[in-house]
């Protein structure tokens, strides 16, 4: 089970940001385990994972003059539906599980077209994990011809999926 930061959504200029709720002190400790498990600490808007890397998963609409609907989930976490206008993006932060089994998938809708796929899994964890502590970026760009994932090693976007 992965855990994401409790979030609110706000719009700043052309960007929708999912950001941590302002809280004075929250500490998450897994209820049962004999092994060191992830711990999520939130102090104000500070985000920290312990023993495991943290990630920032971002999805941006790159389709001019269009709004897309995005609904993202994990097994036990619903990130919710988001409507993104052109150049608008949203993101959320989460800690990887100790055994690296975190999986998030999103269902994308644009007019009569749609697509669903994993936006984060074990393979992507290794691609996104750039030793940035709790801020390892995983960036997706939605275009009219498909879905692109940013490869930080190559410094470029690579097409991963077509619309259906």
TrEMBL record:
GO terms for biological process: rejection of self pollen. Belongs to the plant self-incompatibility (S1) protein family. The lineage of its organism: Eukaryota, Viridiplantae, Streptophyta, Embryophyta, Tracheophyta. This is S-protein homolog. It comes from Centaurea solstitialis. Keywords: Membrane, Secreted, Self-incompatibility, Signal, Transmembrane, Transmembrane helix. Its main location: secreted. The chain crosses the membrane at residues 40-59. InterPro entries: Self-incomp_S1. It is found in: Secreted. It comes from the Eukaryota. It holds the Pfam family Self-incomp_S1. GO terms for cellular component: extracellular region.
């Amino acid at each position: 089970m992965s855990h994401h930061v409790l979030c609110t959504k706000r719009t700043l200029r052309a960007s929708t940001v999912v950001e941590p709720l302002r809280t004075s002190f929250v500490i998450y400790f897994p209820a049962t385990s004999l092994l060191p498990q992830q711990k999520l600490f939130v102090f104000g808007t500070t985000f920290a994972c312990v023993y495991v890397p943290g990630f920032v998963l971002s999805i941006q609409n790159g389709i001019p003059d269009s709004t897309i609907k995005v609904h993202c989930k994990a097994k036990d976490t619903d990130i919710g539906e988001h409507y993104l206008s052109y150049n608008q993006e949203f993101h959320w932060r989460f800690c990887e599980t100790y055994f690296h089994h975190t999986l998030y998938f999103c269902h994308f809708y644009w007019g009569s077209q749609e697509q669903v796929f994993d936006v984060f899994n074990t393979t992507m964890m290794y691609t996104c994990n750039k030793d940035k502590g709790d801020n390892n970026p995983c960036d997706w760009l939605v275009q009219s011809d498909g879905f692109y994932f940013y490869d930080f090693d190559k410094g470029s976007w690579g097409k991963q999926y077509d619309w259906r």
